[in-house]
């Protein structure tokens, strides 16, 4: 095991003794990608437009979306050290679940494109969106990242506009999406 691999795992609060066959296989061949991935993860957690807590909560949303228990646990612990409350962490879980329902529903509407489906009410309760613990802007930003992972064009466009309407910059959105992409790529190897 290389020092780069161990440092990568330390970035996300995982012990160096953890075994991850795909990551370890790449590491054993001295693959340059492990170094790139370590740098990408480290940089993603330090983007100027996101606080450390926000970056960790977004990474947690990726882990919850991908149902990756190991990183859900490690990122939850790490987010708490940066001030995330149980209510905020629970809201990340709830919004990720809600967005999975919405992404399936609205992706279907978009793909089919029939008038009946486009005008029919969603019929999906979304009360957590009304007064989120995380605040409207960050709730929408996290919703955008989950929608991007799940490939719902309608949801991505809607949440991107909502984040901007709540005062975020395009640079903040880009940092959040880049972080999401990097953490999804990391989870593939874990």
UniProtKB/TrEMBL annotation:
NCBIfam families: ahpD_dom. Residues 123-182 form the Carboxymuconolactone decarboxylase-like domain. This is Alkyl hydroperoxide reductase AhpD. PANTHER family: ALKYL HYDROPEROXIDE REDUCTASE AHPD. Pfam families: CMD (PF02627). It is an enzyme of class 1 (oxidoreductase). It comes from Aquirufa aurantiipilula. Keywords: Antioxidant, Disulfide bond, Oxidoreductase, Peroxidase, Redox-active center. It catalyses: N(6)-[(R)-dihydrolipoyl]-L-lysyl-[lipoyl-carrier protein] + a hydroperoxide = N(6)-[(R)-lipoyl]-L-lysyl-[lipoyl-carrier protein] + an alcohol + H2O. The active site is at 152 (proton donor), 155 (cysteine sulfenic acid (-soh) intermediate).
């Amino acid at each position: 095991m290389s020092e780069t691999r161990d440092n990568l795992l330390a970035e996300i609060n995982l012990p160096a003794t953890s075994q991850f066959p795909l990551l370890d296989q790449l590491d054993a061949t001295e693959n340059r990608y492990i170094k790139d991935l370590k740098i990408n993860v480290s940089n993603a957690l330090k983007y100027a437009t996101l606080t450390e807590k926000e970056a960790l909560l977004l990474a947690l949303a990726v882990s919850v979306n991908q149902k990756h228990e190991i990183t859900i646990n490690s990122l939850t612990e790490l987010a708490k050290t940066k001030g995330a409350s149980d209510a905020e962490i629970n809201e990340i879980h709830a919004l990720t679940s809600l967005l999975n329902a919405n992404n399936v529903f609205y992706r279907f509407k978009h793909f089919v494109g029939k008038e009946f489906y486009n005008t029919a009410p969603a019929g999906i309760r979304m009360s957590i969106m009304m007064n989120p613990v995380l605040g409207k802007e960050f709730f929408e930003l996290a919703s955008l990242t989950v929608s991007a992972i799940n490939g719902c064009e309608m949801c991505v466009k809607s949440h991107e506009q909502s984040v901007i309407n709540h005062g975020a910059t395009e640079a903040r959105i880009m940092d959040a999406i880049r972080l999401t992409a990097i953490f999804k790529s990391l989870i593939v190897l874990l």
